[in-house]
Design brief:
22% helix, globular, 2 helices, alpha+beta
Length: 108
């Protein structure tokens, strides 16, 4: 297996309804993960980009969340329609999609 250039972690955390932290599942993360899988397959990018569904990666209140490594970039509040921009602009173009970045204070 070739070493991937980028590794995406898509939060698919599920918590019960009413949980105080909420979860990305309640905000549609399954559709986002599915869209990443679809678009990566359509573009034949599986050798270059690794995709992993993961449990909670932090800021549940602003999810769905996607983390990109080795860049250390987190996207929050993304929708299925944002997947193409993340792939084109960031994963292939090298420039994070500024409008989709997690709040800067999330990292402090």
């Amino acid at each position: 297996m070739p070493k991937p250039e980028k590794h995406l972690f898509v939060c698919t955390q599920a918590r019960p309804d009413g949980h105080p932290r909420g979860s990305c599942q309640q905000k549609g993360c399954a559709a986002i993960a599915e869209e990443f899988w679809y678009q990566l397959q359509e573009r034949n990018l599986f050798g270059r980009i690794q995709l992993t569904n993961t449990a909670c990666i932090g800021p549940c209140g602003v999810g769905p969340n996607v983390l990109v490594y080795p860049d250390g970039v987190m996207y929050s509040g993304i929708a299925k329609d944002d997947v193409g921009a993340i792939i084109e602009q960031h994963l292939l173009g090298g420039a994070p999609v500024e409008s989709l970045l997690a709040p800067a204070d999330m990292w402090s």
